[in-house]
Amino acid sequence: MPDNELHEILGDLVVASHRLARLAARVTGNTESPATWRTLSVLQTSGAMRLGELAANSRVSQPTMTKIVRNLVEAEWVKRIADTDDARAWQIAITPKGAAALKAWRDQLSAALVPLFADLGDDEVEALRSAVRIIGSRVDLSAAATEALAGAR
Predict the structure, then answer these.
(1) Cα separation of 28 and 113, whole Å?
(2) 35-91 tens-digit pLDDT
(3) Is CATH 1.10.10.10 the classification given to domain 32-119?
(4) Cβ density class 103-135: b for 16+ within 10 Å, e for less
(5) Phi, psi of 33 (to 5 degrees)
(6) Between helices 34-46 and 62-74, what is the axis angle to 10°?
């Protein structure tokens, strides 16, 4: 496949996935900020991290992340833990309550989308399953490469 065709397909995939996520979020009626769910997801996937690193990973400013974390601490969805590398600093970690809230949110999103995809045939469902597997493996590989590069500095 020519690079320009793959380039276009990947661009379309990103746009379609964003549209799908926004549609599902609207259908659920959930009023939590997308940044809240993104922050919990980053913490669940990557583990505890400092506020600045969390802000960068969640693609928000540090002052915005400070507010998000304050709200998440109040909800008991995250906790501050001492940074073992710097006694003056804190790391932010997801709590079991936060992980449960994230799982419930993801379940709501999935349930909201089932009617939209209920008429798919077995081959189409298998194509979606395969796409998820391929994308997941590339994202995991990319995350591992990024961590390795950061550690080499």
Answers:
(1) 10
(2) 999 999 999 999 999 999 999 998 899 999 999 999 999 999 999 998 777 777 889
(3) yes
(4) eebeebbeebbeeeeeeeeeeeeeeeeeeeeee
(5) -65, 140
(6) 80
Residue 54 burial by Cβ neighbours in a 10 Å radius (0-12, 13-18, 19+): buried
- Apex CA 38: angle with CA 88 and CA 41, to 5°? 80
Residue among 30, 57, 65 at smallest CA distance from 41 = 57
**Could you tell me the pTM of the whole model?**
0.82
Residue 94: how many other CB atoms lie within 10 Å: 24
Q: How far apart are CA 125 and CA 114, in angstroms?
A: 12
Question: Which residues make Cβ contacts (< 8 Å) with residue 66, sequence separation at least 6?
Answer: 51
User: Which residues are paired to 86 by β-bridges?
Assistant: 83
CA distance 105 to 95: 15
Question: What DSSP designation does 33 have?
Answer: -
CB 40 within 8 A of CB 98: yes
DSSP letter at 47? -
